[in-house]
Amino acid sequence: MTIRLKLPSALLLNERFTMSHTFGGGLKALAVLLAFGAAPLSAQVDAESFAKLGFNFSPPGAQSAALGGAYIALAKDATAAETNPAGLTVLLDPEVAFEYKAVEYTRELPFEAGGGEFIDQVAHPSFFSVVIPTGSVTLAAFRHELVNYRSTVWSEGFDRGGGVHLNPFTSVLDMRVVNTGGSLAIQATPSFSIGLSGGVSQMDLLVDFPRYRIGTFTDEFLKNRLSVNDKFNGFFLNAGVLLQLGEKVTLGGVYKLRGEFADVPFELTEFDAGGGQATRTATKVLNIPDAAGAGIAIRASDQFTISVDAVYNMYSQLAEDVAVVFSTASPTDYTADDGMDVHAGAELLLFLGQTPLALRAGVARLAPSNTYYVGSNSVEAGLWGSTANDPQTQLSGGIGLVLGRRIGFDGAFTVGDQVTQGVGSVQIFLGGG
To answer: CA-CA distance, 255 to 241, in Å (whole number)?
Structure first.
């Protein structure tokens, strides 16, 4: 039986697994648990690495980033193909857009997992699209890196007392999810548009989590190793609407059905002191949680616009129907809470001679997405936490300008406790302008 898990925040294994044995002495089987005091095997295999992960699901584009992500009702450039495909009908001429993003992730391991703060950076071309308006119908093709996450952590071990000791480990987690597809937007009436985007979602996943007997990180002291390194395919679907209320107010709404990745094989290899080893493989389904959102944009004047979004994230899917193979803990002991993100931003349009210059600022209040433990095992509670994390606040700002009505440049920065990023975008307008 394959059990579905929504997104690798928990990264707990499903119930379908196989056993292979390479011990020279002909080991008959590997037990589901290690006899390790009161600590379950999951605490010895993967919990420290995967507990309290955070991902950066900000919509593409420097305009959106500078406005705190409040872009559902604005959606006025080529990034609407991902943010709200109905917004593509706002574009009057063909457009090409490109985005580059640099992100810094900060993770803090719990004290009970060895403690420590770890910082990782990724920089990558994160969005590309081509938009072609054809009357009341607008078409687009795009590529969007929904996730590009890297986490490297390590610990020399931690003595919890009472005979419970968490062994030293090192960990590398690289995850990239790329959506490639097309969009169709229709202006049904002068004030109402609908849009749909869909295509292939590909996940590249690398997990390398070796645990050691002593605090010397060399293969001769390996105790066990959890690993996966492969590519997986799914699909995604985004639907959106846009409603213009007069000349000042625009409403927008979206629903995002994100990628599902089946048959992801996780290997756990056990090593004995004599050099023998045995490997188990567990297969599971990973899913990016779905989301639904709505927004309002108010054009207070020709120069000043404010926008507010609310996005409901279905984070409870993170721990839905989880089966924990490498632990005595019950799947129902792990949970995650749905949460509402709130985004707000403002844009002031100025002119440098004939060149328009936009000044933007925003703020976002992000709901916690962590999977946490609600059972009675104190080790698991220490590693995963027993409550949801605190909401995170992100501040943002940026500028944009258009040169000769043909090329637009936008830049933005976002600062938060767990994620800091810089974003640069270029739009090329191919029509009459």
So the answer is: 9
Cα distances (angstroms) measured from residue 267 to each of 4, 130, 157, 205, 237? 18, 41, 22, 13, 31
Residue 1's pLDDT is 33
Residue 167, pLDDT score: 84
Q: How far is CA 303 from the centre of its chain?
A: 34
Residue 286 near residue 30, CB atoms below 8 Å: no
Residues 241 and 193 sit within 8 Å (Cβ to Cβ): yes
Q: How many CB atoms lie within 10 A of CB 301?
A: 9
Question: What would the pLDDT profile of 306-326 be if each residue is shown by its tens digit?
Answer: 999 999 998 887 766 443 444
Confidence (pTM): 0.83
Q: How would you label 200-221 residue by residue, b for 16+ Cβ within 10 Å and e otherwise?
A: ebbbebebbbbbbeeeeeeeeb
The percent of the chain in helix, strand and coil, each rounded to the nearest 5, is: 10, 55, 35
Tell me the residue length of the chain.
Answer: 433
DSSP for 144-169, written as a single string: EEEEEEEEEEEES-EEEETTEEEPPE
Tokens of 91: 């574009």
Residue 254 exposed, middle or buried by CB count within 10 Å (0-12, 13-18, 19+):
buried
Long-range contacts, 157-165 (Cβ 8 Å, 24+): 157/114, 157/215, 158/111, 158/112, 158/113, 158/114, 158/115, 160/39, 160/112, 160/379, 160/382, 162/37, 162/38, 163/37, 163/38, 164/36, 164/37, 164/38, 164/39, 164/379, 165/37
The CA distance from 394 to 367, in Å, is 11
CA angle 61/64/69 to nearest 5° reads: 130
Average pLDDT estimate for 62-90:
92
- 3-state SS string over 258-303? CCEEEEEEEEEEEECCCCCEEEEEEEEEEECCCEEEEEEEEECCCC
